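User: Here's a chain of 674 residues. Predict its fold as tokens.
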Amino acid sequence: MTQRWVRAFACVWLAASAMAGKAADFVVLVQNQPAGHMKVTAGVGGRTEVDFSYRDNGRGPDMRESFRLDARGLPVDYEINGKATFGAEVRETFQIANGRARWKSRVDDGEETVPEDFVFLPLDSTAAYSDAMLRFMLSRPGAAVPTLKGLKLVAERAVRLKLPLAAVEVPLALVVVTGGDAQPWYFWVRDDASNALLAITYPGWALVEKGFEPLVAELTERQLKAQTERLVTLRQRLAKPIEGLTLIRAVRWFDAPAAKMRGPSDVWLFDGLIAAVTAPGALTAKPDRVVDGAKRSLLPGLWDMHAHTWPDDGLQHLAAGVTSVRDQGNQNEDLLRAKGQIERGEIAGPSIFPSGFIEGKSAFSSRNGFVVDGLDAGLKAVDWYAARGYHSIKLYNSIKPEWVKPLAARAHAHGLRVTGHVPAFMRAEEVIRAGYDEITHINQAMLNFVVKPGDDTRTLLRFERVGADGYTLDLRSAKAKAFIALMRQRGTTFDPTLGAFESMYTQAQGQANPSLLDVAEHLPVLWQRGLRVAEMDLEGKRLADFRGSWQRMLELTLALHKAGVPLVAGTDALPGLGLHRELALYVKAGIAAPEALRVATFNGARYAGQSATRGRIERGYVADLVLIDGDPSVNIADLRRASLVIQGRVAYSPDKLYETMGYKPFVPGAAWLP
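Assistant: Prediction complete.
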């Protein structure tokens, strides 16, 4: 810690410590820029009052929260109101008294007998509530407390450090909370009797007590190191080396280029590669290990072509058979770090093939990759990505229309593809003519037909306009036919990410999320209550219009596929299981299951520039494979029944991966035979 920071924060720390638990101002930072606030004050009757709001990428929450603590510091009386990130209403209360917890939200209500140290987890809450929860947990024996569904939350100080400020040393601790989610929660607290929250930090996003903003970079690095250490340990425990000769015996296998299931055949693996595909018993070689492929199907590893990678997502991807992802927007340094860690075999995760993110500077900017204030800076960003071997660039909402053509030309000159959102005040057909090789998101394609002059699609209007007017699209119209013909003639790829929009356009508050309904009982228990929370408030005619627009989205996806427009399968949503839902939606739209599988295997490798080594089951190709108990070419839902995932020289048992994350496994792992 530098002396400059020491001088800057000595008085801030002393003041904050004096009022810990009473009042505090926090700043929300997005890519190190102020984006919002959380103000915590002492209200009437000893209640804590919270005002929380921020904006990122033109959207964000606005919440007012109020809660009261009992003499032990346990939150026992709670209320929150406001708006969620996409504008849905936030409303919830709970009370704990006389051994009973009672709650009511906009989607559910309930009552149950609870232990004396029970901590309630609201559907929506602010970090101020997390602060109170943490202080109570850290005061309990073992730092553990019961919560909903008989689960237990456990807090552990994973990192302890002291930051010298003037004449005093400020003790801080990184507290890791497990038991509440598929991944741990991380909090920076004062490592003293107050245990007061100082910050929540993640790459590109932070909430930190006002005045301590310059500490965010160091705290984030320390947290990333702790996260990495955990993930290294998990990989050592979960990854099974498969050096030598491996035989997957008498298995059906998916011929991805032809979109057909073949076999049964023997598939031999050696040195991380597919060594041979033969008739059963054709080779007399003695394998080091065998997997029985009877009644199973072997697929090339799946590709998620629209991921935003976090290191903690790796297990979710692999458990679902996703062995490769195209990252469509991230912080460059953090992404390249995670990419290297996976490639070196330090942590578990899919192989990452990044797309270079470029955004224009505006009040609505998404602050990933490079945020540029002029064309020259954008061209330099293209060069930066080209020099590092990126296969594509992704342009975003605030890119100025006049920049698109020269940016695309520079990218093409370096051999890079151009993907992305349609910048504000343009339409999809215009960016295709200006040089886009791919359109990202079904709403961006739909806006081509419903956007109105002056619509600023950097805001939530890019979702609202499609929902309100998309149902009017007539795919038999000359305009629709011309757009589809343009994409076909230009060879423009389409990344619909249907799963990212399904609940947004079809789910009414209180109804189950349709994207996760079929797998709800397998999700971490504390997710299940949240499945009835919709991103938007839809009812009456608005609900009918949005659902009608959703149907047009499915129909447009099918029409593009039938016309020969190449699809790639991306999620921009839940890792792993989200890709299964994406493919199920293709089938629901009318695309045959084998074609959907081809999109998620062969097309993924092809349009990520990896078709020479990945994306098919063939001699000499990388042994990225997923073994399915069933046949997803007949029933696409069988994708969930992965019993073995192979990633080159290592194998994973999906049931063990799911158990580690708090999921209920779908099928037992495949047994290794002698």
